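Q: Protein A?
A:
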Amino acid sequence: MSKPALDLSAYLAEQENKSFLRFLTCGSVDDGKSTLIGRLLYDSKMLFEDHLSALEKDSKRFGTDGDNIDFALLVDGLEAEREQGITIDVAYRFFATDRRKFIVADTPGHEQYTRNMATGASNSELAVVLIDARKGVLTQSRRHSYIASLLGIRHVVLAVNKIDLVDYSQETFNRIVEDYTAFAKNLGFVTMVPIPISARYGDNVIERSPRMPWYQGPLLLDHLNTVDVESALSEKPFRMPVQWVNRPNLDFRGFSGTIASGRVRPGDKIVVAASGRASTVTRIVTMDGDLDEGIAGEAVTITLADEVDISRGDVLALASARPEVSDQFSAHVLWMTEEEMLPGRQYLLKVGAKVVPASVTELKHKIDVNTLDHSAAKTLALNEVGYGNLSLSQPIAFDPYTDNRDTGGFILIDRFTNGTVAAGMIDFGLRRATNVHWQALDVNKTARSGLKVQKPAVLWFTGLSGSGKSTIANLVERALFADGRHTYLLDGDNVRHGLNRDLGFTDADRVENIRRVAEAARLFVDAGLIVLVSFISPFRSERRMAREMLETGEFIEVFVDTPIEICMQRDPKGLYQKAMAGEIKNFTGITSPYETPEDAEITVKTAGIAAADAAAEIVAYLRAGGIVP
C-alpha cells in the first residue's frame, strides 16, 4: 500500500521542479490560434476522456472542419465565440510536458478586442504569432507584434500556419518570413524563430512533417520546451513590491510579496526605495521554512534587523542597486476604453500594489502600430498607443519597463467606474521633477487668512451656459466685499482672455481649462482669499480634482441648477441658437455633455428664485460654516 504514495510523492516533486513558461498565441482573425492550442492539448495527452467525448459532440454542432475534430472548440468557450467561429475573450489553458509546464493564453484577433490581447501579453514571456500562409503578414499581425514588443515580450515564434493550403510551399514560407523580419527588425525581439506548421493536421507542432523535408528547424513544442526566459530575470537587480505587512503577533513583523527580479539573501543590505530607509535582511520566510536565498518569482516574507516604516506598495531593493524615484515620467500608453484619453484628467495609477492619483500632462505623439510612424495627437481613442508624460500626486519607485516589467508597468483606472482604461509602460523618469520642491515660507496660509479675519475657501459655481452662474457669483462677491471680506472672482470668459486663451472647447481643452483654473484657485486660497470660480466645468472628474487640491472644508461646490430650456430662453449671447444651427461645435448641453453634481454643498434652482435671493442664501451658508464671521 505504500508504493503508490511513494510514486505520488515522486511525481509531485518532479512537477514542482519543472520550469514554467507563459506564452500567448496572437495574430489576425482566422489565422488558427485556437486550433493550434487545441492541437497542443490533444497531442500532449492533456485531455480526459470526457473532454474528448464532449469535443467530438461539439465538433458536430459547431465545428468548421467537416467530420473531423475542431480543436479550436477546446478554447473557444463562449457561446458567441462558437457561433461566430472567433475568439472574443482571453482563454487560458494549462498543459505540461516531461520538461516544462505551460500556461498559454489564446487571444482574440479582431481589432476591437485588442485590449484583451494586451491583457494576455502582459503576463507572457513568449508570443506565438500566427500567420495564415495564404494571406501573409496582415495589419493585425503587425499590431499584435508591436503590442507584444511594447509589453516586454522578447521571444517570438513566427508560426506560418495553414501551410497545407499552399501545398507546403517553401517559397511562400520564405517570403512571409522575409516580410515579417523586415517589419520586426526594430521591435527588440531577442529571438524570432520561424516555423511552418499546420495546426489542423499537426505538421511541425509536435512531430516533424514528412511533407516539408526542406524545413530542418525546431519543432514548435521542442522550442517551447527549451527557450530560456528565466535566467535573465533572476540576474536583474533585486526588487520586491510589498503586498502585505505580515504581523501575526507582537514577536513577528515581516513584509510579504513576490520577488519581481533578482536575488536576496539574509545579511543583504536593502532599502525602501521611495524613502531611502535602509536595513539588513535577517530571514526569508516561506510556508515550507526559511530560505538561504530568494529568487525572482518566489513568494516570500522578508524580516529586517530594524524597525523600518514600510507599507503596502513600497518597493524593497538592494542598497547598491536602487530603482528610480520620481513623481513624473515618460511612458507608452495603450488606451483600452471607448471614452477617449484626456490630458490633464486625473486617473488612478496602479503600479505593483501602489495606487496614486495621476494624469497625462502631455501627449507627445501617437503611434501607428502598422507602420510604427509617429503623428501629433491631443487624445487617444480605443486601442490607440501613445507616448507622453505623466504626473503623479506623490513620488513612486519604478524601473524602465524594458528593465523590469513588474516595476515598470502600470494601469490607469477611472476614478468613478473603477474600470481599467489604459495599460502603460514607463520609459524614463523626468529627472528635473526630483529637483523641484515646495518652498517653505515664513508667512503661510493661516497667517494670511488670520490677518483678513476669514477662512480661505473656493466657491465653485458650476452649471450650464445661461444658468446664471456669473450673475450670482458677482452678487455674492459684492456682498462679501461690502462686508470687508477679501475675495477674487475667476470667471470663465475672463480667464479665456488671458491664462487660457490658447485653449478651445474640445473635451481635452476643457479638462486643461479647469486644471489651470483649479491650480490658480489653490494659490488664491493659499493667499488667504475667498475665491469665487464661475465655470461651466462640465465634468465631475475635474471638479473632483479641484476639490482634492484643497484641504477639507475649503471647496464649496455651488450647483446653479437651471433647466436647459430656460437657459436657451435666456441665451444672453445667442450661443444656443448658434450651437443648434451647427455654427458652434462642442457646446455643453447640445453637442457636449454636462455631468450634474452628485453631492454639491449648495444647490440653487434659479427657475424659482431671484439671483439676489440666491446670493443671499450662499452668503448665509458661508456665515453658518464659519468662513466669514
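Q: Protein B?
A:
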Amino acid sequence: MADIIQLLPDSVANQIAAGEVVQRPASAVKELVENAIDADSSAVHVIIKDAGKTLIQVIDNGKGMSASDARMCFERHATSKLKKSEDLFYILTKGFRGEALASIAAIAQVEMRTRQRGEDLGTRIEVEATKFKLSEPDQCAEGTNIMVKNLFFNVPARRYFLKSDAIEFKHIIEEIQRIALTHPDIEFKLTHNGAEVFNYPKAPLRQRIVHVLGSKYNEKLVPVEEDTDIVGVTGFVGKPEASKKTRGEQFIFVNNRFIKSTYLNHSIVGAFDQLLGDGHFPLYLIYLEIDPAQIDINIHPTKTEIKFQDERAIYAILHAAVKRALGRHNISPTLDFNQEVSISIDPMRKDIPIREPQIAVNPHYNPFETKPKRESLVQGWFDNKQQVRKGWEELMEISRMVENTEIPVSESVDKLFEIDEDVIPMQWNRQYLLVPMEDTMLLVDQQRAHRKVLFERYTHLIEKGQGNIQQLLFPEVLELNASDFALMQSMLDDIRALGFDIEEFGGHSFQLLGIPADANVSDAEKLMEEFLEQLKNEQSALHYKGREKLAWAMASSSSIRYGQMLTLPEMKDLLQRLMACKQPQFVQGNKPVYVRITLDQIGQQFK
C-alpha cells in the first residue's frame, strides 16, 4: 500500500500559519508595529488604505536590518529574540514566535526597505505569496519601511469574512492605541486614505492616556500604585462618573503587553463594589510588572492570553491596590485609624454656636388605635390620569399563582389585540404593563415594547433618508477619541437620516445642532454617548447588520427604561404603537415583548 503521509508545501504551511496569526488587517498592523517597537524606534508612522485591505504601511526609525537579515526575516520560525529554549521563559520583547512576517508574506504582496544605522546603503525586498521577487541594494532612510499590499489576495474566502471598512479600521485603531498606551515615550502617527487620524507625541503616561481616550477623562483618572515582591501595580482607574454600560475602556497590560483576563477583570470590578450603578462597568488602565519567569505568554498565537504562576496572589494584590486608590481619593468610604477621636468642625462654620438637637413627640399618638379600612382596589388607581399604585399586593399574588405556569406566546403576526376605550392598562413595578381584556391578560415589557417601536421607526427613517429634527437651543460639541470619531465619520449620512443634525467640527470632534424629534431625553450629549456605546459594543445587536444595527443602537439608547413611571395616556399610546408594528411579538434574539395569561390558566390555579 502506498504511503499517504507527506510534508505540506511551504506555501500551504505558511497559509495555515497565517490563518492563526493574521485574522484580519488589524492583526497584521499589530505584528508590524510590535516589530518596530522591538527595533528601538522612537517614532512609528502607520499608513492605511481601505481599512488595510489595499495597503498597510509601517515606517519606523529603528535600527534597521542587514541584507541577510532582511531576507531571513521572511522565513518561518526566524527570529532575533530567541537563542535557546530557556529564552521562552524570560521574554521581554513583543515578537518572538518568528511567524509574523512569513505569515503576512504568504497572503499578501510585501515590499520592504530597510537600512541599518550608520550604513550608507539599505536593502529592498519584494515577496509575493512566500516567493521572493526581488532583493537588491537600496538608497533608503534609516530604519524600516514595510508595505503590505492586497491582503488576502490569494485567499479570497478570507476577504469574504471581513467586516465593513468602518469596523475593520476601528480594530486597527484599537490595536495601535493599545500599543501606544504602553509606550508613551514613542511617537505614533496614523493616516487613513490620505487623512491623518491621530498623531500622539511623546508624553508622560497620563497625558498619553488623555490623548488616546479624550481630554474629558483628564479629571476622571485616579492613580493606582502598589509595589510588592510578587507584582508591581501602576496605572489609573476611572471615577464612578466615568463608568459606562459597556466594557470598551478596560485595559490590562502585563510587562507592557495588552492581555485579556476575565479573572483579573473580576478583581478590579469587585473593588468598585456599591460604587457603580447596575449594568455599569468601570474605566481602568492597569499596568502589571512581573518577573517574566513567573508567566507564560506563549499559549495563544495572538499573545493576548497569559498564564500566571500565582494568579490568586495577583488577584488579591490588584483588588487591594484599586480599593486603596479609590479610598485614598475619597471615592469609597474608608476608616482612618490615625485620626484623633474628636468632632471635626468645618473651619468656615466655627463661629456658629452648636445647638442641642430637639426631639419632636406626638402626644396624641395611640398605638392601639384600629387602622383605617383599606380602600377599594379599583378606586383611586388613576387620579387626573396619573397612575397611583394601590392594590399591588393582590396583583403580585396573581403573578405568583401563574409564575410556574407555562405561558404561550402568540405566533400570529396579524392584529393581536385592540385597546378599547374602556380598557385601563396598569403599570406593574414600573417595568411591565398589565392589559386586561375579555378572557386574557397581556403582560407587556415596557422597555422592549418601546425599543421595538423605535427600531421599526428608525429603520424606516434610514431607508427614507430623512428624520424629523428638534433643534438644540445651544449646540453641543462632542469630543471623541480617534476610534469613535472614525466610526461616526463612516456612518454620518445614516446618522443624519435618524434625525441628528451633526457636522464635523475640527480635530476629533462633532458639533451637535439637533437630535431626533421623538428622542425622549433632555441631555443631548448623553444620548449621543449612549448611542455610540450601543453601536460599538451592544452584543444583543449582533443579530442585526448594517443599517439595522444602527437603528437598533439608536432605539436602545433612546427608549424608556425600567423604573420609569408612565401616565395612562403614555401607556395607551405605547400599546397602540406596538400594535401597529409589523412584528410586535419579539425583539432581537427572539426575546418576547409580551406574554398572554388566559382566564383558564388563572382558573386552574384556583382549582
